[in-house]
Specification:
By secondary structure, the protein is of the alpha+beta class. It is built from eleven helices and seven strands. It is 59% helix and 18% strand. The longest helix is centred in the N-terminal third of the chain and has 43 residues.
């Protein structure tokens, strides 16, 4: 127990050190990128630094598996140089037993990241996306999904239009049982239109079976309402703008994702991207454990055995390969070319089995 605590504590300390190193590397790079994006906008150095700081947790969270494998390599190389691994083996501990502590620490780290870090990343990512949209457009088109249906907002300096629909097509460009309420620049409602169907074309909504109420120019809007088979409403929305209004799945806390996916399905949107992300997050602790096993498989040899550089390079290449394979599987899962469960769980489980086979062959074989 004392030995396991010692190894786990050293592993946790190395994870912290590697995270600080990556923080020092990523923050200036992202700061320069944010300043480049804000060039020409009414923004200064402080705005760029705030955006870079908001984006930093998501960047670190995304490369957490790489941080873990680097920490694992540093841990076992240090234990090998100090001959502590020789002492551990002489005490009757096998390679697999010596790995229990760092693997358990990686699983705990993954669970802590899922429960604590994920909501923090979601909050900072949400603020980051809103501020970026504000700098780009000044007034942004917003889409939200609720139990009441789909909500959209469009407009410019002259006024806003709030749109509600019971359901929509997968890309949000066709709305069913839609209501349009237009407001002037002072926030006063001036018109309401109900339509059985609304389709977004270039620069306008095409409405079918519509009824129009003049809220701002009539003392009795119901009396002056008009029912028309077809109508148009000017629009500043685009297909890409509606798609981007969903934001990235990482901007939604893990505890809210299942409910959000149900709302997407009920509103007619595809929740596959968010469903893949949910399972990727649930599989993340096992991905961290796989990275520990990969790093240990190539770095538990004694330093006098030679070829340490080749073994470390092999571990890094395999770790990066698994990391990018996981991202590739995520893309295939989002596109529907792989089942959700296979895309999320196959890479970490395959990496665990592969690294266990290497360890048993090199260390206990």
């Amino acid at each position: 127990m004392i030995l396991a605590t010692y190894i786990a504590r050293r592993f946790a300390w190395l994870v912290l050190m590697v995270t600080l190193v990556f923080t020092g590397l990523l923050l200036p790079i992202d700061l320069m990128e944010q300043l480049r994006r804000l060039d020409g906008q009414e923004a200064g150095f402080g705005d760029g630094l705030r955006l870079a700081a908001l984006n930093l947790p998501a960047a670190l969270y995304q490369i957490l598996p790489l941080i873990v494998i680097l920490s694992t390599l540093a841990l076992f190389l240090a234990l090998a140089r100090s001959s502590e691994l020789v002492v551990i083996r002489a005490a009757g501990r096998s390679a697999l037993r010596a790995l229990l502590a760092p693997v358990a620490a990686a699983l705990v780290l993954g669970l802590a990241a899922l429960i604590v870090v994920n909501p923090i990343v979601a909050a900072t990512q949400g603020v980051y996306e809103r501020e970026i949209a504000g700098f780009r457009n000044g007034l942004s088109s917003v889409l939200s999904i609720s139990e009441e249906g789909v909500w959209l907002r469009q407009g410019d300096d002259s006024g806003q239009t709030v749109i509600r629909a019971v359901r929509s097509s997968l890309d949000g460009t066709i709305l069913f049982e839609a209501t349009f309420i237009a407001f002037d620049a002072n926030g006063t409602p001036v018109e309401r239109i109900d339509a059985a169907r609304a389709e977004l074309s270039e620069g306008q909504w095409l409405l079918e079976d519509a009824k129009r109420w003049p809220l701002g120019s009539s003392d009795n809007p119901e009396r002056d309402a008009q029912a028309v088979p077809f109508a148009t409403v000017p629009s500043t929305l685009t297909r890409e703008g509606i798609r981007d209004s969903f934001g990235v799945p990482s901007s939604i806390p893990i505890f809210q994702l299942p409910g959000f996916i149900r709302q997407l399905d009920a509103a007619g949107f595809s929740g596959r991207t968010h469903r893949v992300w949910l399972h990727m997050e649930l599989a993340n602790p096992f991905m961290l454990a796989a990275m520990v096993l990969i790093g240990a498989a190539f770095s538990m040899r004694h330093s006098r055995a030679g070829k340490s550089g080749i073994m470390v390079l092999s571990a890094l290449l395999l770790g990066f390969g698994v990391f990018f394979l996981r991202n590739f599987a995520q893309v295939l899962g989002e596109n529907g070319q792989l089942p959700v469960m296979l895309a999320a769980w196959a890479p970490p489980l395959a990496a665990i089995l592969l690294s266990l086979g290497v360890i048993l062959r090199l260390e206990d074989g």
